[in-house]
Specification:
The protein has 13 helices and 14 strands. The chain is α/β, with parallel strands linked by helices. It folds into 2 domains: 207 residues, 3-Layer(aba) Sandwich (Rossmann fold), CATH 3.40.50.2000; 153 residues, Glycogen Phosphorylase B (Rossmann fold, 3-Layer(aba) Sandwich), CATH 3.40.50.2000.
Length: 393
């Protein structure tokens, strides 16, 4: 089967960022290993070119604007029309690249992301199914992050339009799928991503680490629980002075200072490493006692999946899709989002060995079985062939 993915990100362009790019790397590699022909069409800031990545053809489609186009966008900005036009322009560039490749050798399946509405202008073709993967529910995310700008509102509307443009839509989590069904009456199924580690951990971590530590990694932002984690740490350190925590991930300017502002005299007990390459990150993760990943809202995050694959317990939240992955008392601890005292107690409980969830478990059964590579691929292909075949309701 010939399969094309339309995406705003891939690891050839952003190797240290983006859950979507990491998912596509895993899925495309597994599809190639299963005998399928896979192409990635990526909206990119880099020089347009075609590269091969693990047997996958990756075409970079530029989204830079020429001087005349920039002038038009500036003229339309006061009317608020520059934002939807920028989304449509990106989507049209990707769909034109798709159709050019389709004419050369037809695709059987096209999967686009709802993120940034990259599949907004994909046309329906006989013999070709257009599937949209709901990588996020941007209205949920923006509400938590406090994003109320004109850009945020346009993004929400256009991403929903992109979902409706597909013939089939699915989300990795029940949380996001049910949100779209309930609020917008969209027919969104649930298809779990494959669990697979495409690289090995480096033998030595990239920095001197504490002898024992908990780990918070990924994006260091409001939605991922970074800041109320920092507030909870101030409480936890008073309860357990020996507790230590390491943070690793991408962060905007001022995040480090905001984190430390909550810690008072406990700043030395938190080590912030910044963004790491996957082999480095996995080395740090393998040394952690537990991962603290208290997202306020999420969509089956890679950070939780990777932690469980390494046998690392996860301290996470209920109602943010993490509870779809973590079995309380077996593979981690679950708390109510925003409860600082409960999060502090959970960290201390794990640190003292008072939790039944212990490092070194083998993640299996339940959702882990749904995410085995062969089954995850089969579910995706079945959904494309018959939306009622693989959908989890």
């Amino acid at each position: 089967m010939r399969i094309a993915f339309l995406t705003p990100e891939f690891i050839t362009d952003k190797p240290q960022e983006g859950g979507l790019g990491n998912y596509l790397n895993r899925m495309s590699r597994l599809l190639v290993e299963a005998g399928h022909e896979v192409e990635m069409i990526v909206s990119s800031q880099l020089e347009p070119r075609v590269v091969m990545h693990g047997g996958v053809r990756v075409e970079r489609v530029p989204n830079a604007r020429s001087l005349p186009v920039r002038a038009v966008f500036r003229a339309l900005r006061p009317l608020g029309l520059d934002i939807p036009l920028s989304f449509i322009r990106r989507a049209r560039s990707l769909s034109r690249a798709l159709e050019r490749r389709h004419r050369a050798a037809p695709f059987d399946l096209v999967q686009s992301a709802d993120y940034l509405a990259v599949g907004l202008t994909v046309q329906r073709k006989p013999g070709r199914v257009h599937v949209v993967r709901c990588s996020c529910a941007m209205d949920l995310y923006n509400a938590v992050d406090g994003k109320m700008s004109r850009f945020a509102r346009w993004q929400e509307r256009l991403e929903r339009a992109a979902i409706r443009n597909g013939e089939v839509a699915y989300a990795p989590s029940r949380l996001v799928a049910e949100h779209f069904r309930r609020k917008y009456r969209m027919d969104v199924s649930v298809i779990r991503p494959p669990i697979s580690l495409e690289v090995d951990a480096e033998e030595e971590p990239p920095a001197a680490l504490p002898d024992r530590f908990l780990l918070h990694f990924g994006q260091l932002i409001e939605r991922k629980g970074t800041f109320w984690l920092a507030e909870a740490l101030a409480i936890a350190f008073e309860m357990e002075p020996d507790l230590r925590l390491v943070m690793a991930g991408t962060a905007e300017e001022g995040v480090r200072e905001r984190i430390f502002s909550y810690l008072g005299g406990h700043r030395s007990k938190v080590l912030i490493l910044g963004a790491l390459r996957k082999p480095q990150l996995y080395s740090v993760l393998s040394h952690a006692d537990a991962a603290v990943l208290p997202s306020l809202v999420d969509n089956l995050p890679n950070t939780v999946i990777e932690s469980l694959m390494f046998g690392i317990p996860v301290i996470g939240t209920r109602g943010a899709s993490i509870d779809e992955l973590v079995e309380e008392g077996v593979t981690g601890e679950l708390i109510t989002a925003g409860d600082r005292e409960a999060l502090a107690r959970a960290m201390v409980r794990v640190w003292r060995g008072e939790s039944q969830a212990r490092k070194g478990f083998v993640w299996q059964g339940g959702i882990a079985d749904e995410m085995q590579p062969a089954r995850a691929i089969e579910n995706l292909l079945n959904l494309a062939a018959d939306p009622n075949e693989a959908a989890l309701r």
